[in-house]
TrEMBL record:
Known role: Specifically methylates the N7 position of guanine in position 527 of 16S rRNA.
InterPro entries found in the cross-reference section: rRNA_ssu_MeTfrase_G, SAM-dependent_MTases_sf
Protein's recorded name: Ribosomal RNA small subunit methyltransferase G
One Pfam short name: GidB
Enzyme Commission numbers on file: 2.1.1.170
Length: 206
């Protein structure tokens, strides 16, 4: 995928494309000294990482506030913050427990003047009220829902980027949690799934 193809798919502004290109450059530099993403995925970064993240905007509807758990390399949080930059009241909280990743995220937020706040801490310890809680490649669904519990129980919709084992992970998660969920096929990779979660409560016998 090229930047122009991405722009056609998403309607991103030229300024948004410029910010994404600057982010990719910063990511490649940081990835040379710390493990943020697999180096073999960089040649396909627009599809594998940027478009994969940006596709969440459609199922999120009019959502303005997001919490990205285990924000790591900035997917999907930094991409969302870039694409939401010109929207009124938009904000993304980037939550990660590792200081070095938070320092990287903060440098990108500062450089690009993004509507985002970096939080160095455990996801489940935060008490943020947001429209959407999201995560990518963080943990199996059972653990991920535990991390997202404080956000979901404050009314957030969960939108999680998962792989081809998403259905099996949901079966395991339902042994611990009651929730409403739906699956849709990823637009960046037909093997991937977007898992939407709402109305969370714990199974009583656990």
């Amino acid at each position: 995928m090229t930047p122009s193809e991405f722009q056609t798919l998403t309607g991103a502004t030229p300024a948004g494309i410029a910010d994404l290109e600057a982010f990719i450059e910063r990511l490649a530099e940081a990835n040379a000294v710390m493990n943020l993403i697999g180096p073999d995925t960089l040649p396909d970064v627009w599809n594998r990482h940027i478009w994969d993240s940006a596709q969440l905007l459609k199922p999120a509807g009019d959502a303005r506030t997001w919490a990205d758990l285990g924000a790591g390399a900035g997917f999907p949080g930094i991409v969302l913050a870039i694409l939401l930059k010109d929207r009124s009241d938009a904000h993304v909280w980037l939550v990660d427990s590792l200081g070095k990743r938070c320092r990287f995220l903060q440098s990108v937020v500062n450089e690009l003047s993004l509507p985002a706040t970096v939080i160095n801490g455990r996801a489940e310890a935060q008490r943020l009220k947001v429209d959407v809680v999201t995560a990518r490649a963080v943990a199996p669904m059972e653990k991920l829902i535990a991390y997202a519990q404080p956000y979901l129980q404050r009314g957030a919709q969960g939108l999680f980027l998962k792989g081809e084992k998403a259905e099996a992970e949901l079966i395991e998660a339902r042994k611990v949690w009651h929730f409403d969920s739906s699956l849709s096929v990823s637009r960046s990779d037909p093997r991937g799934r977007i898992v939407s979660v709402r109305s969370l409560r714990r199974v009583h016998n656990r």
